[in-house]
Design brief:
The protein is α+β, with helices and mostly antiparallel strands. It is 37% helix and 26% strand. It has a six-stranded antiparallel barrel.
Length: 299
């Protein structure tokens, strides 16, 4: 009974295989018997097949887009990192170049004024964040010979006065502060007409106590007069930007633009000792000495 059942099953399997191969042969593309029917079936399935192919292509394109986009994003991030590194190097080189220029100018000034002053180079390490006083803190103090009331300068001009010291730091009151007062004169004619004080509203100074007939003109250079003995004589302060005659007609005031850019100060000189005052007198008589020219102006 079992053998008979297996024989029937084996026969059916063989028959099925024969039928399968027959159908494969008879449904071929060039079969003349079933070609029309096959053609109809294939024509009817063509749109479906086209949709499937297009869908697959669309999916492949989307996957390719995301893969390419991810690659481009990664490349973009790498380029950004490289650009940031290059910018940082560029800024560092620019900063180094500017520092070298400042130090070179200071060194040249120190050489030029070696017969006039003994200097101590200091770096600015702090600024007063408030609005009451305009001060800076430098990294030199009493342990290095810095004392109260010593003048502070740069190669461009007068900066201020030491007002407090510790062992390793000093506080400097800038000349643009309202509490600052510098005896001043006109460089071009050595007339000593007034005092330069801070305005408190900007980085400009104001020259006050000027006689109404003071020979003051826009563009002239104002230097320290040496009066008061706090600031050495002849240090440049600023240029005259504006001259105003007071309503009473008796006195003048002048607005001065400092020669020092206080917003960009980084290094300064403290004058430890004045050996000889500067004699910044412009030439008015060819062949005459500075002393003779000064005598001529005083006559």
């Amino acid at each position: 009974m079992i053998i008979k059942r297996w024989a029937i099953i084996s026969g059916l399997v063989v028959t099925g295989i024969i039928i399968f191969f027959f159908l494969m042969k008879t449904t071929g593309w060039n079969n003349p018997i079933l070609f029309p029917a096959t053609n109809v079936v294939r024509e009817s399935l063509a749109p479906v097949q086209k949709v499937i192919i297009n869908t697959k292509k669309g999916v492949d394109d989307i996957l390719s887009y995301f893969n390419n986009n991810k690659r481009l994003l990664n490349e973009n991030e790498e380029l950004k990192k490289k650009l940031t590194m290059l910018e940082e190097k560029s800024y560092a080189l620019l900063d180094l170049e500017m520092e070298n220029k400042r130090l070179y100018d200071l060194l040249e000034y120190k050489k030029e004024k070696s017969n006039n002053y003994e200097f101590a180079l200091a770096k600015i390490i702090g600024r007063d964040p408030g609005n009451w006083y305009k001060t800076i803190t430098i990294n030199r103090g009493s342990s290095e010979g810095i004392k109260k009331d010593m003048a502070v300068v740069t190669h461009n001009g007068l900066v201020g006065l030491v007002i407090n010291t510790t062992a390793n730091t000093s506080e400097v009151l800038l000349i643009i502060d309202t509490e600052s007062a510098v005896g001043a004169r006109i460089l071009e004619n050595r007339v000593t007409p007034g005092i330069a004080v801070g305005t408190g509203k900007s980085d400009y100074l104001q020259m006050i106590h000027l006689p109404h007939d003071a020979p003051l003109e826009i563009g002239q250079t104002i230097v320290s007069s040496g009066l008061g003995e706090l600031y050495p004589e002849g240090i440049r302060i600023g240029n005259v930007a504006e001259v105003t005659l007071e309503p009473n007609g008796l006195i003048k005031t002048a607005l001065l633009e400092p020669l020092v850019d206080f917003s960009r100060l980084e290094e300064v000189f403290v004058i430890l000792q004045t050996k000889k005052n500067e004699t910044e007198l412009p030439s008015t008589s060819e062949g005459n000495s500075a002393e003779e020219q000064e005598e001529e102006l005083l006559l």
